[in-house]
Specification:
Blueprint lengths: L5 E7 L3 H15 L3 E8 L6 H14 L7 E2 L14 H4 L24 H11 L4 E5 L4 H9 L9 E5 L15 H4 L2 H8 L5 E4 L1 H4 L3 E2 L1 H8 L6 H19 L9 E2 L4 H7 L4 E6 L2 E2 L10 E2 L12 E7 L1 H16 L1
Parallel strand pairs: 1-2, 1-4, 2-3, 4-5, 5-6, 6-12
Antiparallel strand pairs: 7-8, 9-12, 10-11
This protein binds beta-D-ribofuranose (BDR) and calcium ion.
Amino acid sequence: MTPSKVKIILDTDPGGDDAFALLWLLSLVKQRYAELVAVTTVDGNVHAKYTFTGASKLLELAGFDHIEVAKGIIGGSAHGIEDAGLLHGIDGMGNLTHTLPECTNSYFTARFADEVLIEKLNASPGEITIIAIAPLTNLAAAEKKSPGILKKAKDIIIMGGAFLTSGNLTPEGEFNIAYDVEAANIVFSCREDLVVLPLDITRKLIFTNYIAQNIKKVNPESAIAQLIVSLAEFMCQTSQSFRETSGLEGFLVHDAVTLAYLFYPETLLFRRAKVRIETKGEWTTGKTVFDHRHKTKIGANAWVAMEVDAVNVLAAMSEDLKILIR
Ligand code: BDR
Ligand code: CA
């Protein structure tokens, strides 16, 4: 029996690691394991205009320009928070967007993400998996406009949070949660089965220039392969300045772990937890909290990944990227 394809909406803010996650997903689409229903872009790593362009150009580059890209809702609770342009480049794509082919998508005429999420989830209730690898502004906007809509997703898989380790936006806050805490709070209150992939494990996913070069060898002429190498070079450099990898060469492909969960689940270990978002802390706004003392499952709303087999996640990602560029 042929297993059915996983239907996915990717909610993303490219972002170097988002770009790698999207390319990995496109390989899985090419291999017919997944169907990409839409990409909803978000204001986050860089402004919504740039995340829209980044995602659109990646789809164009890989030959998937027929997939709808929605633009991000502006006006979450991210007032005054600096974006991550210094780490990801001012365009979010290592300042490489201008090297990519023009795309036909227009930010001005694109639909907003909440509209697309509501339409797609209503059209296929219980069938679509949302992969959320950015601030949760769009998901929360959809839930506010159409209460209960997020329950119509098959699953919601979130890269976000930090439980036993420090944050990366603030001492306690991880970027995707702390950037728009009100949105995170709405999403974490909407179901009991969220899948959460926090910094605790993604800090182990160090993608290197060597891995990028190795992928490129399969087809050095491929424009995608060239982007993989150039983007990795950029991200490795900025990640060093921000000490993202404790001095090791490489950069963190946080967002890619969501694909590992869906397609290589043997690489992750989870615990059941009741996750709460700190929305009013004096010093800790954006912190994700669960009770480490008790293992009670009462009131649990999430599965939180606590361990990752980083070697095999990176290996699976590399092999799939090779298939994309062949
Ligand atoms: C998350 O924050 C962003 O900067 C990355 O793209 C990732 O989604 C990691 O904390
Ligand atoms: Ca991201």
